[in-house]
């Protein structure tokens, strides 16, 4: 029987387009100091460390965990590095969760970061394509993501206007998030008229490129009370994949996300996600994905995402708020982004989300994903 | 019907690929000051206030304790060899700068391997031209009897260098393997697209693979598909970025070739690009336009172009 695991400390940097005052390791240290302070712990009281980062090509440092452990004072502790593209932060949290749920450790520190200002982003991401088969046409995952959004338009009605509403909502929410660095209100018209980058994806459908780090302290039930009387309990967490280029891949509804959600909802006792969740945080690398996730996560039926966003239900004061933090639109340090989503979901049920707190949030859903949409995960946390 | 590839291995030289990646790395405060002070010919270290331990070159965090309150110090230019090795590029040594508690790595100059020993005294050799890098010190040379120096507070520290340009050229040689080898050989030699028959669904898998992704059983039956197909997903690329192979604007397309059950990634051209989103959509019929090249790569197809209405029968 797996042991209960709680998030007892959270921390993130004030993300920015470029931090020239700290190195990659210094950035991590800031987030770790904040998470440890939040958990009322020192690094000495941490049993094990998980370091999660995006592709090595982003920052030109191979095995950055060896650098990071020195910078956070974690030498001689167990350490593993996890990397899984955009979903890295959630995959890292899952690795930490297993260590406690399985009885190996009592407290695990999970750190995730990327300092995207340092490398060539789209070039680096494009290397996820098969070098023989398609890489010469890759535009990171932007070209690919835009292409399947175009396909979903016809079949599921995910219009440019609907995606623009996601941009408007998330930009507006980010204004209240002290850690976001894009603080700009936009209108549907602004989004529609913004420069096409990979049409139908336009500039304002795209999150910023960010430097940032995030950290959480996971604790066993036994020791959680030392840190807080209100942990965010992990009720379920999963990370699923689908085959890279298999015959069955339709890319219309995200199959791995639907699978992950089904599995995790079962363990968390979720039968009606729209009604049961108080708040949802999704990792939207482009606005079109937030629409797709509404459907894959069961917040609405396939084909109803445009209606859901238009109804206002996913606004911060709606019945199913999605990304009250502003999501990736406020900041997008890719390796950290998925952990930031989990942190924001945890902050909501811990009652410490500040100006973007959803009143009385007790049950929250976080979603993340990586690869070219073939790796998808979810986590459910509760008060 | 063709035979399984293991009975007809195709020996192709590997695909050569180079990634040429530019970076602007941020050294952070301590290393930033170290690099900035290199032009003043000063070696900058850092002392951890809580542990008292000194690192040279300077670090933002104590390597032993993780302490973050660090005061910068000026280190002496002398030290002791703690280990050394001969490489093709010269002698590399681990060194303990006088007053430091941790080793660093640098070159040993003007000495033969046989002259060196653990514990030998050395001194820094500065480059003639100042550079803001660790190579401002070209290396260290033997300095028998050099007095043991001391670290002292760093006076008037320069502003840290905020960014350092960096570059990685990564050269790869990717093996084709028998399945890819066979497919690309057919593309280069016969201008023919072949995959393997899926063992789960009626149709061809391209690129060909040894095991079907859905049934997990071995494939092995080759299946030729025509160079016509249907666009399943498309976007119009305007973004320009470092490393891009195609010149925007172009259409990124995922095309299901007739008879295939997977997608081929390519570009669609030969249309009025100002009307790209009207002219090409999911469902648009396209055909390959072959280039003059016969290199055995996907680029032997120059691009795909829409099949004009009523022209379909002629192309098949």
From TrEMBL, chain A:
| Cited InterPro entries | Thiolase, Thiolase-like, Thiolase_C_2, Thiolase_N
Q: Which residues form a coiled coil?
A: none
Q: Which residues form the Thiolase C-terminal domain?
A: 243-382
Q: Which CDD domains match?
A: SCP-x_thiolase
What does the UniProt keyword field contain? Answer: Acyltransferase, Transferase
What domain of life does the UniProt record list for this protein's source?
Answer: Bacteria
Residue limits of the Thiolase N-terminal domain? Answer: 7-221
Instruction: Give this protein's Gene Ontology molecular function annotations.
Output: acetyl-CoA C-acyltransferase activity
- Give the matching PANTHER family: ACETYL-COA C-ACETYLTRANSFERASE, ACETYL-COA C-ACETYLTRANSFERASE (ACETOACETYL-COA THIOLASE) (ACAB-3)
Spell out the protein name for this chain.
Propanoyl-CoA acyltransferase
Lineage of origin: Bacteria, Pseudomonadati, Pseudomonadota, Alphaproteobacteria, Hyphomicrobiales
Automatic annotation (TrEMBL), chain B:
A Pfam family: OB_ChsH2_C
Q: Where is the ChsH2 C-terminal OB-fold domain?
A: 222-290
Under the heading PANTHER family, the entry gives: BLR3430 PROTEIN, DUF35 DOMAIN-CONTAINING PROTEIN
Protein name per UniProt: ChsH2 C-terminal OB-fold domain-containing protein
